Amino acid sequence: MIDTDTALARCQDLVALARRMGADAADAVARADSSESVSVRLGVLEEVERSEGEEIGLRVFVGKRSASIHTSDFAPEGLRALAERAVEMARHAPEDAYAGLAGADALMTGEVPDLDLSDDSEPGPEKLREMALAVEDAARAVEGVTNSNGGGASSGRSLVALVTSEGFSRGYSGSGFSLSANVIAGEGSTMQTDYATRSARHFADLPSAAEIGREAGERAVAKVGPGSLPSGPMPVVFDPRIGAGLLGHLAGAMSGPAIARKSSFLLGREDEALFDSAIRIVEDPLRARGLRSRPFDGEGVACTPRNLVECGRITGWLTNVASARQLGLGLTGHAARSSGGAPGVSLANGHLEAGSVTPAELMADIADGLYVTGLFGQGVNMVTGDYSRGATGFRIRNGEIAGPVAEITIAGNLLDMFRAMIPANDLEMDRAINVPTIRIDGMTVAGE
């Protein structure tokens, strides 16, 4: 895989080419990645895969018109043709009053901070195979597990470099390692499947194969023989693995582009108390070894930690250049982009701060409720906030887990759900988006 200096040099050359071809402004982003993965099933090697990829994207502006194009051809004549084609495309594109580059005064300055994202460990195929076998063996060793969908282990590296005609030129790289197992419990019509997976920037930060495999096996066994539960309003408790999606919906509704399009259920609610006053939701793109950590965003703006929700209120929209200009706001360092196309907006590492009670205490007064461990379907309307998802999990009776349930639908409105949200104290920072166990009263559950 190429190094950062080489990637930056390519971007600088491409931006210079575009300017010579007639672009008023331009930026280029280079991406490279390599990965190695091994999968096994029932103790037998299934697949060993290695991939490498490099590409570079160019975005050019001619007046208020722009175009974007990307390639994996790094030959000088190929890059020249790319720049020429991009400028010609821009000349024929419709005008956009808001598109453009981040100005020099908004760009990150100084050295790129060391976020400890890269680990030089190279497990290699044999070590990855050993890990994949171990995680599947641990899952299959759980009493009640009857079959396996497999175990897997992977390692990889990635690099990002960005250059703009406003003077920005920086890049960073990182590593990633993962381990997973997916197994089946029960027989015939009672069969259930579940999984466990972990990812980390540093190899040493991965939990043991025994821990991950055991979690996968125990989750699958616990789901065997699901029943249903009565329909009606009741408290719903979200497992941390599932509850993280609620933060994703919040971030999507806080997106500057969504606000500019008037397609967010948070529009006009900037000053409302949307959560309990004790709720705080934090984003930290500079967290050491964070899975989504990054020093700067897709437009060269420095990323900084911030509270997304403070004292129950949101703290503002998440912007890129286009949405900031349209809304008359500043840049927040949330621009995200691939090699092609205009930047969007994305959240970095986020978490809901822990509450003060244990999960058991959180559920203790629930006479009849639902503990959700799985969701499916896409029933979330980001314009109205209406929420309706298929669910699996466990019935709660008199404060205790009473048995598995399936073929359930849970429904509500995200605004009501946010107001009713109560977090437990079991927050763990092992994913990109982390939440503790969450209780939400008053949701509508459709069961039998």
From TrEMBL:
<dbReference type="Pfam" id="PF01523">
    <property type="entry name" value="PmbA_TldD_1st"/>
</dbReference>
<feature type="domain" description="Metalloprotease TldD/E N-terminal">
    <location>
        <begin position="26"/>
        <end position="90"/>
    </location>
</feature>
<dbReference type="InterPro" id="IPR002510">
    <property type="entry name" value="Metalloprtase-TldD/E_N"/>
</dbReference>
<dbReference type="Pfam" id="PF19290">
    <property type="entry name" value="PmbA_TldD_2nd"/>
</dbReference>
<dbReference type="InterPro" id="IPR047657">
    <property type="entry name" value="PmbA"/>
</dbReference>
<protein>
    <submittedName>
        <fullName>TldD/PmbA family protein</fullName>
    </submittedName>
</protein>
<dbReference type="GO" id="GO:0008237">
    <property type="term" value="F:metallopeptidase activity"/>
</dbReference>
<dbReference type="GO" id="GO:0005829">
    <property type="term" value="C:cytosol"/>
</dbReference>
<dbReference type="GO" id="GO:0006508">
    <property type="term" value="P:proteolysis"/>
</dbReference>
<feature type="domain" description="Metalloprotease TldD/E central">
    <location>
        <begin position="121"/>
        <end position="223"/>
    </location>
</feature>
<feature type="domain" description="Metalloprotease TldD/E C-terminal">
    <location>
        <begin position="231"/>
        <end position="447"/>
    </location>
</feature>
<dbReference type="InterPro" id="IPR036059">
    <property type="entry name" value="TldD/PmbA_sf"/>
</dbReference>
<comment type="similarity">
    <text>Belongs to the peptidase U62 family.</text>
</comment>
<dbReference type="InterPro" id="IPR045570">
    <property type="entry name" value="Metalloprtase-TldD/E_cen_dom"/>
</dbReference>
<dbReference type="InterPro" id="IPR035068">
    <property type="entry name" value="TldD/PmbA_N"/>
</dbReference>
<dbReference type="InterPro" id="IPR045569">
    <property type="entry name" value="Metalloprtase-TldD/E_C"/>
</dbReference>
<dbReference type="Pfam" id="PF19289">
    <property type="entry name" value="PmbA_TldD_3rd"/>
</dbReference>
